[in-house]
Amino acid sequence: MSCDLHFHIDRREVFADGYSFGDPGPYERIVGRAEVFFDPSSPHYSNVVDLEYAPRDERGCVCFETDFFLLKPVDMSRGNRRIFYDVVNRGDKRALQFFNDASASNNPSSLADAGNGFLLRQGYTLLWCGWQADVLPGDGRATIAVPIAYDGNQDITGIVREEIIVDEAGVVSKPLSGKSGTRCHPAVSLDTTAATLTRRQYQENNRELMANGDWQFAKLSKDGLVEGSATDLYLAEGFRPGWIYEVIYTAKEPQVLGLGFAAVRDLVDMLRHDGADALGTANPLADGEGHPMIEKAYAWGRSQSGRFLREFVYRGWNKGRNGGAVFDAIWPHVTGGGRIALNLRFGHPDRYPRQHEQYLYPSDQFPFAYVSCADPHSGEVGSLLRHPYTDPLVFHTQTSSEYWQRRGSLVHTDACGMDIDDHPKVRIYHFSSSQHHAAPGIPPQPGPYRNLSNPLNTSPLLRALLVRLDEWATTGAVPPPSCVPRVEDGTLVSVAKVQECFPGIGDIRPPKAANRLFLQDYGPEYGYGIVALEPPQIETDREYEIRVPAIDADGNEVSGIRTPDVSVPRATYTGWNIRSDLVGPNAMYSIVGSYLPFAANEAERAAVGDERLSLEERYPSNVEYVRRVYEAADLLWRKGFLLEEDAARYVEVAKQKG
Question: What residues does 519 pair with on adjacent strands?
Answer without folding.
Answer: 539
